[in-house]
Amino acid sequence: MIREMTRSDFESFWPTFSAVIQAQETYAFDADMTLEQAYHLWCELPLKTYVWEEQGVILGSYYLKANAMGPSRHICNCGYMVAEAARGRGIARALCEHSQRVAVERGFKAMQFNSVVSTNTQAVQLWKALGFNIIGTIPDAYQHGQLGYVDCYIMYKWLDT
Q1: Fewer CB atoms inside 10 A, N or C side of the chain?
Q2: What's residue 73's pLDDT?
Q3: Would you say 74 and 93 are in contact if contact means Cβ atoms under 8 Å apart?
Q4: Rounded to 5 degrees, what angle do the CA atoms 86, 87, 91 make?
Q5: Would you write out the chain's pLDDT as a tens digit for each of its 161 residues?
Q6: What span, in angstroms and rounded, lies between the C-alpha atoms of 58 and 124?
Q7: Neighbours of 106 (CB within 10 A)
Q8: Alpha-carbon distances of 102 from 49, 63, 85, 92, 112, rounded to whole Å
Q9: Which CATH code for domain 2-158?
Q10: Whole-angstrom Cα distance, residue 113 to residue 157?
Q11: Phi-psi region for residue 116, left (φ > 0), alpha (ψ -120 to 50) or beta?
Q12: What confidence score (pLDDT) does residue 124 get?
């Protein structure tokens, strides 16, 4: 069910991606981003990008990249999206678990999420359940589409056992 994303996969996933960024509830991406800009950001800049596919339908995706360079290149960063109709089925959990395995295989020692919107309570709870800790709060870091300015969390997990 989880495999590397192709250009065609991203084009199929674009309606989900576009809906997520237009809602302005979870990602700090421009709501008017084009498919080309989004593909570059999600698939070309990261080290790897994966999809969750069921019966030819892309229901979720994540990317994996280094969080920084040089002496901090051992920490990776990921972003995850799941189609609204597929939420609550464990896809985000499976994608995050997969990303941690891939991160370790690629030599990363830790994973950091730089900006988890505090009002995204399902994600915060899931990441905590998967062993991530909130290591910082950025006050009023995100202008939520419905709620105005809300905090963001920096979440972190050491992967190297």
Answers
A1: C
A2: 96
A3: no
A4: 80
A5: 999 999 999 999 999 999 999 999 999 999 999 999 999 999 999 999 999 999 999 999 999 999 999 999 999 999 999 999 999 999 999 999 999 999 999 999 999 999 999 999 999 999 999 999 999 999 999 999 999 999 999 999 999 77
A6: 23
A7: 12
A8: 11, 11, 26, 15, 14
A9: 3.40.630.30
A10: 9
A11: beta
A12: 98
Q: What are the tokens at 125?
A: 């709870």
Type of residue numbered 127 = W
Instruction: Tell me the C-alpha distance between 139 and 152, whole Å.
Output: 7
Coil, strand or helix at 14:
helix
Q: Which residues pair with 155 in a beta bridge?
A: 113, 134
Which residues are registered as beta bridge partners of 156?
112, 133
